[in-house]
Design a protein that fits this description.
This protein folds into 2 domains: 226 residues, Alpha-lytic protease prodomain-like; 86 residues, 2-Layer Sandwich (Alpha-Beta Plaits). 70% of the residues lie in helices and 11% in strands. The chain contains 11 helices and 4 strands, in the order H-H-H-H-H-H-H-H-H-E-E-H-E-H-E. A hairpin with a 2-residue loop joins strand 1 and strand 2.
């Protein structure tokens, strides 16, 4: 949460920090990364699917299908990022950031459907006893080469997903890493097929289906944190940050929500009752800026300044300094 966000912040270069400071530039960078991922996924999918169909390998063909799904999910991610980058409007005063989360959910749904289709074909093949599969050095070359491309895409998208706090990029990277693990399984199936066990092809296809399903579940869990307004920051860390400010006696009712890249925070500051209205405003403003500077991804902070005596009457005591 907050500690994790701070750790991620240390990964960001000065260039990335500049990008993150502007939602529009951040969106353009996310789209650039996704377009590169899309192009590479299409190349990978064509080679896997084409050679899998030629050789009769169900596992390789399904791995190609998974790569085509990677490319399709990237397009969904691009649409989500484009909509999410729109500025706040009268009907969307908090902005459009959740559309990026909706895009990740759509990717997850596609993965579930694909997992079901792959599993159904694998079970049918197992019941039929397996089919003849042609395996030679080209099979291994294509799998190893395309897997290397997938590793690069997953690393590239994962890196920028962390730097830009992009749920679409992170979801697409998770999907691509799944494809890497699937490719390793397919290579193992080719080895067993060459050893005289054609049934291994269908068994690995079942592993492919499970891996795709698990990737979808991981995406849904991440999306749920945003859509269900799960707390994004540790309340205790926010309190530790603002309580030492001069004039603050305690902090309470710390709440945070939103996407990882657009967090909204509100809290109560229990202040010295002798502070003037102007001084209380200055303290609240300082607390807001401190939170925004200390926790990457914070888009807005609302602080309610409460005099200590009024807080005590209301039972809003919070954490004392």
């Amino acid at each position: 949460m907050a500690a994790e966000s701070r750790a991620r912040a240390t990964e960001r270069t000065d260039s990335a920090a500049d990008l993150y400071a502007s939602p529009e530039i951040r969106a353009r960078q996310s789209q650039k990364v996704l377009w590169i991922g899309f192009a590479l996924n299409v190349i990978v999918a064509v080679f896997k699917f084409g050679f899998g169909t030629f050789s009769g390998s169900m596992a390789m063909t399904n791995d190609g299908v998974a790569s085509f799904l990677d490319a399709g999910s990237t397009l969904i991610g691009l649409a989500g990022v484009a909509i999410a980058s729109r500025p706040p409007s009268k009907t969307h005063p908090y902005g459009h950031a959740k559309y990026e989360t909706y895009a990740s959910v759509a990717i997850g749904i596609i993965l579930i459907v694909a997992a079901g289709d792959i599993a159904r074909e694998a079970i049918a093949s197992l019941m039929g006893g397996g089919e003849h599969i042609y395996v030679d050095w080209a099979s291994y070359a294509i799998m190893v080469g395309t897997m290397a491309l997938n590793v690069f895409v997953a690393w590239w998208e994962g890196k920028w997903g962390r730097l830009l706090f992009s749920e679409a990029l992170t979801a697409d990277a998770q999907h691509t890493w799944t494809d890497v693990y699937v490719s390793i399984s397919v290579i193992c199936s080719l080895i067993f097929v060459q050893m005289g066990y054609p049934v291994a092809d269908a068994l690995v296809s079942l592993i492919v289906a499970f891996a795709v399903l698990w990737s979808a579940i991981s995406i849904f869990r991440q999306a749920n944190r945003t859509l269900a307004d799960v707390s994004r920051l540790e309340a205790s860390e926010v309190e530790d940050l603002v309580v030492p400010i001069e004039g603050v006696r305690a902090a309470s009712k710390v709440r945070s929500r939103g996407s990882e890249g657009e967090v909204y925070v509100d809290l109560h500051l229990i202040l010295d009752p002798d502070l003037s209205l102007v001084d209380a405003h200055d303290v609240a403003t300082r607390a807001e800026r401190l939170i925004e500077e200390s926790f990457p991804g914070v888009a807005d902070v609302i602080v309610r300044a409460v005099p200590d005596e009024a807080a005590e009457r209301a039972g809003d005591t919070g954490r004392s300094s």
